[in-house]
Specification:
mainly alpha, 232 residues
Length: 232
């Protein structure tokens, strides 16, 4: 990378973080202000003490999950992609699959400058397309209601996310079958034996990741120990 490219990249990253932080702050303020503004205008503000207790109970569940998502997704998406994805939401269903697919098509690797740009462009495109589809869906909601509520389509709607991630997972699983085998078996047995744990995916994602990393390290050490020693 030339000196001019390095300077341009530094400027690009600095502006990305500036706009990303400002945009995130504005987004958080708007999301928090909207319900309170409506409650104030309608004279229906909640009891703040009860609100705080409810928020604490939900926070205990979701804060660890959000931390795990941040630690897992940010290295995959880069700075610009992370700001856009976490601000616009719907990471699991839309943003992550879109970014990973774009990365595979272009052939970039996580942590590189190329991946930073590809991830940002793909997530921005996904956000614009999602907004357009939602707007179109709102306009057509009433005309399409008989079709969307048809009983024959309900099983399909209930399995959209598993189908999406099952297809994506296979592409990555086949690259490291040995590493994938143990966490996949452990999580499958765990979910079958204790179905209620499905709601705690955030915690179990960290556990399965730790199992995969530990297994990969064991395989790496085993391969290193079995490697032939080069004679000087």
């Amino acid at each position: 990378m030339t000196q001019n490219n390095e300077k341009y990249l530094e400027k690009y990253m600095a502006r990305t973080h500036l706009f990303g932080r400002v945009g995130s702050l504005i987004g958080i303020l708007l999301m928090l202000a909207a319900p309170f503004a409506m409650g104030l205008s309608l004279g229906a503000l909640p009891n703040l003490s009860a609100f705080a207790k409810g928020l604490l109970q939900i926070g205990i569940i979701y804060i660890p999950s959000c931390i795990v998502e941040f630690l897992v997704y940010t290295p995959m998406l880069g700075a610009g992609g992370s700001y856009l994805a976490f601000l616009t939401g719907n990471l699991i269903n839309m943003k992550i699959p879109c970014a990973l697919n774009a990365r595979d098509i272009v052939g970039t690797e996580a942590g590189t400058t190329e991946n930073e740009i590809v991830s940002t462009l793909s997530i921005a495109t996904s956000s614009l397309v999602t907004t357009a589809v939602i707007a179109l869906g709102v306009l057509l909601l009433i005309p399409l209601q008989p079709v969307l509520s048809a009983p024959v389509l309900q099983p399909a709607f209930n399995n959209v996310v598993p189908a999406l991630f099952g297809a994506m997972a296979y592409k990555y699983f086949r690259r490291g079958k040995q590493i994938v085998a143990i966490p996949l078996i452990v999580m499958s047995v765990l979910f079958v034996c204790v179905p209620s744990l499905i709601s705690s995916v955030g915690f179990l994602m960290l556990l399965s990741g730790a199992i995969a990393i530990a297994h990969a390290w064991v395989l790496f050490r085993k391969a290193k120990d079995n490697a032939p020693v080069e004679e000087e």
